[in-house]
Amino acid sequence: MRLIRTSPPFELGEFFENQILNLEYAILSHRWEEEELSFQEMIAPTEQIRQKKGYQKVKHFCERARADGFEYVWVDTCCINKESSAELSESINPMFRWYLNATKCYAYMLDVSMIETDCLDQLLTSVWFTRGWTLQELVAPQEMVFLANDWSEIGSRRELASRIEQITNIDTALLLGKTKLYNYCISKRMSWAATRETTRTEDRAYCLMGIFNVNMPLLYGEGENAFIRLQEEIMKDSNDETLFAWERNGISEEKPCGLLAPSPDCFAESGDIVPYPLSENGLPFGSTNRGIRMQSPLVPPVSSTTTLILQCVGSSKLVGVGIMTSPSSPDYVRITSNLLRDIPYSVLLGAVLDTAYIPKSLFLASTNNSALQAQASDSEANSSSQIADHLLNRRIQPRGHCKNLVLCFDDTTSPYTADGNASNVAKLHRMLDRSEGNQVAFYQTWGRGTTLESVTKDAYRFIMEYYQREDEISLVGFSRGCHAAQTLDEFMDHFGILFSSHEKMIDEAWSTFLTFKSQEGRAKQYAHLKLQYFRESFCRPRRRISFVGLFDAVDPDAQNNRHSTSYMVFSSQFVCHALAIDERQASLRPTLAKKYTKYTSYSQYFEQVWFPGAHEDLGGIMQRNCDEIIPLSHLSLVWMVNNAKRAGLRFDRKQETSRKTSTVEEDLDLISGDYRKAKSETDDASLSILHKHFITALNNACEEGFLHNELEFGRGWAPVHVCKQRVRDLFYSRTLSQSAALKRNLRKIPLDANVHSSVLRRMRADSTYRPMNLCIENPDCLTILNMGDRVMECFVRATAK
C-alpha cells in the first residue's frame, strides 16, 4: 500500500500490510473529475502537472490532513498504478479494508458550497451519493467528515446520520457504528447500491466486493457478467436467499432468465426483505455445472407456472418467484418480473423442500427458450391466492426423489352409490395429489369372492413394483379393509419388500408368514428362520409406515371371536381411527386400535374417535337421502383428511372442493385445519365468509345428516333387507352374553375414549337422538379436547383407571 506524505513535496511511500496496522493515516473519498492525478504523474510531477485540478485536490487534502495531525494520506487516483492490471486487482480487493483501517476519512463534496445558506440541502443532492465506489467509502470508515468545495467541514457522519439515511436508505445505526455491516442481509446491502452508477459496467460489481467481503479477479470487458461473478462469490460463504429476491421488468415465459440478478438495479425494492429459514434439514443452495441448486418449497403448477418460495420474508409475508420447467429438461428458469410478496405463513403447513436446478443468468436460460415458448400460450400471472390454493399440509423436510405410496382398502362391492356419491375411502383416494409423481395411489374394493389373502397380495405386488428406497407408505381402510391394511403392515414388517424381479416368491412368502403366525414349537421356529432368510436374501427394508387411517374397523373373523373385543396395532407414525357410535348389529362389532408401545423410542400420533352414525355412515357407502344436504359421513372424512395432511399426505385442492371434503370454500386454511385463524381474521371479509360456509357444512352434516340403521324400517334400507338383517342379527346375537343381547349394547365405549363433539351437538339438536352405549351423567364434568376446533374437538367422560 502506497501512502502520500502530507508534508511537501508530497512524496509517495510504500508500506507492507503489517506496517499499516500500526500507522495512522487519513483517506480521501471523492468523485473523480477531469484532470485527476495519476500514479505516473505523482512520482514525477512537472510544473504543468502541479497546475492540474487533480494535483491541487491532492495538495489541499494533504494540507487539511496535516492540519489535523496526520503524517500520511491515501488517495485512490495516484496511489495505485492503474497501468498494471495485476496491481489494480490487488488494490481493489483490499480497498474496503483500507478504508476500514483508516483513522479518518474525508469525503470531499465538490458540488457543495459553504457560502450558500442551503449547504445541507446541497448535500442531499450531491453527486457523491450517486456513485458506486462511494458506498463502501461511506460505510467502511470508523470516523468520517464531509468537506465542502473549499475544504471546510460540513459535518461528521455521526452528526449528519439522519440526513444521510434519507438520501441512501442506509440505517442510522450502521452510520453511527452501533451495528456491523455483516448484520444486514444481502438484499438490504444490494438495495443501497441499486441507484448508484459507475463509469464502467464492471465497476458496479467490483465496487461491492468489500461490502460483501469477497475477493475476485478484475476482468474489464466482461460487462454484466461481473455482477454474476460477484453473486457466485457471495453464494460460496452465505446461505442468505435474499440474494434471489430481486425484480426486473421484461421477464416472462417468452423471455425467461436465471436466478441471479443482472445488475444491482434489480434490488431497488428489496430493502425490506429479510431471511426466514424454513428448515434446518435442507441442503444449502450452491452453484453447480447445471446451475444453482436450490432446496426450497415448490408450489405445484398453477397454469404452467411453479412457484419457488424463497426462505425470506418481506412485510410479514413470505416471498417467492415464478419459475417453469422446460419440457426437454428437468431444470427451471425464472419467468416472473416481480416477486410474489403476499404469500401467507400458512403455506409452511403445505410446502416441502424440493431440489431444483436453475440457471444463473439470462444467457444460460436462453438455451431452453424455444422449448419454453411452447408452454407460453397460456401464460397467466401467478398470484399468491392461487399459490395458497395449491399448497398442502405437510411437514417441511427434504424430499429428494422419494414418494408416498398410498394404499386404500374399501369394503364395498362398488365405490359409487346409485346417485353417484362415493365412499369415504374412494373420495380420499380420488383427492390424492398426483401432479408431481410424488404420490402413487392404490385402490381395491372388498367385493364378493375377495379374501384377505388376495387383497394383501395385490397390494404387496403394487408396493414391489413402485417402491424405491426412502419412499413412504400410507394405508387407508374401511371395515374389513382395515384388517387388510393391518395384515399388509405385519407382512412387510416380517419380510420387508421383495424386489420386483422376485414376484414368484410371494406365494411362498405368504405361506411362511401364515405358518409363523398360526403354528407353535418347531414349526414356528422353522418359519422364523425362513422369514429371516427371505428378508436377508431377497427383500429390501422398508421405512416405518407414515400414516394409517381407519374408518370403523370390524373383525372379519367375528364368527370365531364373539366373546372378546379384538384389537389391532400399527407401528406407524400416525394412527387415526374413526368409529361409529350408533352401530347396533352384532355382526359388526368393532376392532379397536391400540397405541404401539413395544419400543419406547417410537413416538406415535394416535387418535381413536367415536363419531355419530352407523357403520355405513362412517364408510360413506350409502346414497344420500332426498332432503339431505351434507351426509353424516362428511364429519369423519374431514377429520381423516386433516389428520392425513398432518402426516404428510398431499391432496388436490380442486378435487377436495369438488368432492365436498370440506365445503365449496376456496381458502386452504380452512381445509388444512387452521379454522381459528380464519375465524379470528374478521377484518378479512372473504375469510369470514369462508369460515361461515365451512361451519355451516359441518352443522348440516352433524344435525341433519341421515342416520342409517339396517335393523329399523325407514332408516335407508328396503323393508325386505331390514327383515333379513333382523333375523340374521337375532341368531348371531344369541352367541353373545345375555346382557349384551338384551340391551343391544354391542359397542362398549371405554370411559377414557374420545367422543367427537358432533355427538353432543346432534343430541342437543335432536331430542330423539341418544346413543344407547353412551352414558353421560353430568355433561358439565366432561373433559373437552381441542376446544374450539370444529373438526378435531372431542370430549372424554372420565380417565380410565
General description of the model:
It is a single chain. This protein has 801 residues and is an alpha/beta fold. The protein has five domains: 2-183, no CATH class; 225-389, no CATH class; 404-505 and 539-665, Rossmann fold, CATH 3.40.50; 506-538, no CATH class; 723-796, no CATH class. The protein has 30 helices and 28 strands. The strands form five sheets. It has a nine-stranded mixed sheet, sandwiched between helices. Strands 8, 9, 10, 11, 12, 13, 14 and 15 form an eight-stranded antiparallel sheet that branches. Helix 20 (506-518) packs antiparallel against helix 21 and helix 27 packs across helix 30 (757-765). The chain is elongated and about 125 Å long. The termini are far apart. The model is unreliable at 363-400, 657-678 and 738-743 (pLDDT under 50).
Characteristic key phrases:
33% helix, single chain, HET, 8-stranded antiparallel beta sheet, 5 domains, elongated, 801 residues, 30 helices, 28 strands, DUF8212, Rossmann fold, 17% strand, Tle1-like_cat, alpha/beta
